[in-house]
Amino acid sequence: MIGGIDIVTLIAALMAASTPVLLAATGELVAEKAGVLNLGVEGMMILGAVAGFATAVTTGSPVLGFIGGAIAGALLASLFALLTQILLSNQTATGLALTLFGLGLSALFGKGFEGIRPPPTTKIDLGPLSDMPVLGPILFHHDWVVYLSLILVAVTWAFLKYSRMGLIIRAVGENHDAAHALGYRVIAVRFAALAFGGALAGMGGAYLSLVRVPQWTEGMTAGAGWIALAIVVFASWKPERVLIGAYLFGGITALQLQLQAAGYAIPVHLLSMAPYVITVLVLVILSATHRHGAPAAPAALGRSFHASN
Amino acid sequence: MTGALLKIEGLTKAYPGVVANDGVGFQVAPGEVHALLGENGAGKSTLVKMIYGLVKPDAGTMQFQGAPYTPPEPRAARAAGVAMVFQHFSLFEALRVAENVALGMENPPPMRALSTRIHEISTAYGLPLDPARTVGDLSAGERQRVEIIRCLLQDPKLLIMDEPTSVLTPQEVEILFGTLRKLAAEGTAILYISHKLEEIRSLCDSATILRGGKVVASCTPRENSARELAELMVGGEFAATDRAGRKLGAKIFEVAHLNLAPMSQFGPALKDVSFTLAAGEVLGIGGVAGNGQEELLSTLSGESPSAPGTVSLHGQDIADLGPNDRRRLGLLAAPEERLGHAAVPNLSLTENAILTGTVRRPLTRNGFLNMGAAKRFAEEIISGFDVRTPGPHVAARALSGGNLQKFVIGREVLQAPEVLVVNQPTWGVDAAAAASIRQSLLDLASKGAAVIVISQDLDELMEISDRFCALNEGRLSAPRPTEGLSMEEIGLMLGGAHGMQEAAR
């Protein structure tokens, strides 16, 4: 205990608080690596939150709930893909519209689910590991989604760096005309990357409504999708830095909740604002110091592709 | 000929409003270097895209190794043994050499094995290349090696090369030709597209000449002169440029110790660039693109500010003036990138004429556009420079590259500049149009204007410039009179042999 804050609880809470943003940012990273800027993360998250919640409540299974959230996110992302990749609409405007659409649609679907408690998501019992002092409660006392999110980051990193499909995704995001000339199917690759990004955003949303809160309330993502977007940019499109960014955001979120609970005389609004401000600040500083050397954004990011060009 | 590797008959492809290929037929034997010749828009690119499976023909048949060949996509073409090196490099700058190569292969081996193979092949064919380097850091010649090695790793039976030498120094061209001759001797057929007739005469065994989408002649290029080939391409007499009758006047333009930080991530910096220019003089600046050409143009045109005293016109320091102020003083520029830099793609030719023309021509009145005057100015450009377009109302995007280039050059020339800077004035422009652009630059100089021509085309620079210097990694060599300059010396200047600079001083 330091100043009324329990460090072990704090770090344990950090991992859970980070998970929604981590999932969404990892998904968006893949989409942006393929050269598509989907600003609709917030919309996909909130739709995933309500769809996951509804599925879990109706079926009684949180696992099905997360799958439902992922499917809902992927469907909304597919709508975005259809509009931007096939109908060639503007990515920025479509992404913003997607967020507004997701917020509205989730409020409509969620009306009947307010004030209900979802079935609990099981924590994984790791036996002796969970019983370890300090490390046990910090690392080995979480639900399966936390571990899944970490595995997904590692898999995404290895996939992008070492696999053939990952190389093709990076190539498409780097120079879609060249990728097309070499015979790769730019639109199919981008469609798949977007759907993957949507699924992860949906899962992240479902984690909010099924585990973090756990309840359905309108607009409950509260900007987490935007933070996920910012994290991808400031992480210079690198999965390992996305992990740092997401955990930083989660850490400050957990800390400010504990500070509130410990009764510090800091205005609540300042505290709730802190995670957003500090995350962005730290990431700006990080990316500024890393500017030299490594190329940052995928060169074709946000540009529409049409085969005749 | 029996045992043709590739046999094409009656190939036709029409786009809305234009027949790109009309009943094209020819054949290529194994080990043959076959040239495809033609002006811009003659249908060469469409033809090779059909062979490579990027475009589907409307009619006609292709046979490859005696079997019917209809590649639905490049993958199938590659599987059959057809490889292609593109005119605009199809490379990924942020990726490494080995990754770029892997992307062009059907079943690439693991990265480590691939790196070893790249190393082997590149040494075997005299094209040294480090598989671990990022493509963005490579020179144009090295980038082309990446493309060629990507093709060679698949043991192609037919290698298509679309304008491969346009970005190479003479030495690099020699290396490339050595590689191609070696490949041909090993039985690989090569389909070679180029505008450079002398190259075709020295390299190719046979040639098919296209005009307006049709085959107009087949010949053996060694037995014809470059002039005859050019006339076959154009379908008429070919006017040589006339550079006689020019007198150099007083010094009017000076660049002194100009430095500029890189404008893009992989771009070069300008380092201590100095030269002077007299009225009536044409200064040719050679060098492979990406060595500071764009940077130099943007500091001369006024887009990028430079330190005080570095650029002066008539003795007046203009280093801190923007493009419009410089236009007012008589310094005009035509950048390389036609769509998006020299012209706005979605605006009409009239509107594009206003964009740079209004400073020296009365095209606006009290802040309002004078569309009548602007339209007349655009029409003047169109008729004076033989721009082929339905009229000045057409969007710049709709013009072919060569026609838009003529428009862009004409727009600046007709404003009667005192100093004109052009970057790659005939890049991607066919022989006849290129000749007329060069002539217009010479005519401008003979009226007393100073002209700076930045170009990769050495023949062009030798043809029109009075003095020549080379831009290499942002450094400009000391200008030397073009008369009596040998290709050898030019190659050394381009390669950045700094001893040459010292010797010239």
Any descriptors?
heterodimer, A: 309 residues, mainly alpha, ABC transporter involved in vitamin B12 uptake, BtuC, 71% helix, globular, B: 505 residues, alpha/beta, Rossmann fold, 2 domains, 23% strand, ABC_transporter-like_CS (chain B), cell membrane (chain B), nucleotide-binding (chain B), repeat (chain B), P-loop_NTPase (chain B)
Commentary on this structure:
The complex is a heterodimer of chains A (309) and B (505). Chain A has one domain: ABC transporter involved in vitamin B12 uptake, BtuC. Helix content of chain A is 71%, strand content 0%. Chain A contains 13 helices and no strands. Chain A has helices at residues 7-33, 41-59, 62-86, 91-110, 128-131, 135-139, 144-162, 164-174, 176-181, 186-212, 224-234, 239-261, 268-289. In chain A, 48% of the residues are buried. The mean pLDDT of chain A is 89. Helices cover 34% and strands 23% of the residues of chain B. In chain B, strands 13, 16, 19, 20, 21, 22 and 23 form a 7-stranded mixed beta sheet that branches. Chain B has 505 residues and is an alpha/beta fold. Chain B has helices at residues 44-51, 74-80, 97-103, 111-124, 140-152, 170-185, 197-203, 226-234, 293-301, 323-329, 349-357, 371-384, 401-413, 431-446, 458-464, 487-494, 498-504, and strands at residues 6-15, 18-28, 33-37, 59-64, 67-68, 82-85, 158-162, 189-193, 206-211, 214-219, 251-260, 270-278, 282-286, 311-313, 316-317, 331-334, 364-365, 368-369, 419-423, 450-454, 467-472, 475-476, 480-481. Classes of the chains: A mainly alpha (309), B alpha/beta (505). The A-B interface holds A 164, 167-168, 170-171, 174-175, 177-179, 181-184, 295, 298-299 and B 53-54, 73-75, 78, 86, 89-95, 99, 102-104, 108, 136, 265. Chain B: It is found in: Cell membrane. Chain B: Residues 6-237, 255-498 form the ABC transporter domain. Chain B: It comes from Rhodobacter aestuarii. Chain B: Pfam families: ABC_tran (PF00005).
